């Protein structure tokens, strides 16, 4: 009961929302609470956030195969892009939601360099804009939310350089809407400098 009251207070005071959010969770988080991904996507949609990305960090994506049906449920409320192994699935309509399982930012950057070399790009022509055009995930989150830990993965290492970071003190399995709203309140209070 008290959480619903607190939610209303937080919602009332939210005025500046991020347009793009990235949640960083572990493979074990996903196994412990696979339904939370749908819930978090729904919270984002209901608040009018433009897009949400979920990075599920795991060295063994096959372990999460049993979670795929729950992840695919997101397509019933949003436009879902799912990156799993070397495959990409797209479905649904509405707010953009991307789920990336076991992807690495280092691998993404190395892949950009390889593709530029394969395309015969002159090294003198390589700049930030060209590199960004080769990225798999052309997504710059305003806010990165990490649950249950104090370190990030290397996912979106190029794209999140100017993102605001929020480390939730609760694990993914215990995530409540009020925790999500606390992250948004914190985002709202920050003066973004974008590296300046």
TrEMBL record:
<keyword id="KW-0808">Transferase</keyword>
<dbReference type="InterPro" id="IPR036424">
    <property type="entry name" value="UPP_synth-like_sf"/>
</dbReference>
<dbReference type="GO" id="GO:0016094">
    <property type="term" value="P:polyprenol biosynthetic process"/>
</dbReference>
<dbReference type="Pfam" id="PF01255">
    <property type="entry name" value="Prenyltransf"/>
</dbReference>
<dbReference type="GO" id="GO:0045547">
    <property type="term" value="F:ditrans,polycis-polyprenyl diphosphate synthase [(2E,6E)-farnesyl diphosphate specific] activity"/>
</dbReference>
<protein>
    <submittedName>
        <fullName>Undecaprenyl diphosphate synthase family protein</fullName>
    </submittedName>
</protein>
<dbReference type="InterPro" id="IPR001441">
    <property type="entry name" value="UPP_synth-like"/>
</dbReference>
């Amino acid at each position: 009961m008290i959480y619903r009251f607190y939610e209303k207070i937080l919602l009332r005071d939210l005025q500046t929302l991020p347009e793009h959010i990235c949640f960083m969770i572990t493979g074990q988080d996903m196994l412990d609470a696979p339904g939370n991904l749908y819930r978090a996507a729904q919270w984002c949609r209901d608040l009018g956030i433009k897009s949400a990305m979920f990075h599920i960090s795991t060295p063994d994506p096959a372990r999460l195969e049993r979670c795929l049906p729950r992840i695919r449920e997101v397509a019933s409320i949003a436009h879902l892009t799912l990156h799993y192994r070397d495959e990409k699935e797209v479905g649904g309509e509405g707010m953009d939601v991307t789920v990336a399982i076991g992807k690495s930012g280092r691998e993404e950057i190395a892949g950009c360099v390889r593709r530029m070399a394969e395309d015969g790009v002159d090294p003198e022509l390589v700049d930030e804009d060209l590199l960004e055009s080769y990225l798999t995930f052309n997504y710059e989150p305003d806010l990165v939310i990490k649950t249950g830990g104090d370190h990030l993965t290397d996912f979106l290492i190029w794209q999140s350089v100017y993102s605001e970071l929020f480390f939730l003190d609760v694990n993914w399995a215990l995530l409540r809407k009020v925790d999500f709203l606390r992250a948004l309140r914190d985002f709202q209070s920050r003066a973004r400098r974008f590296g300046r």
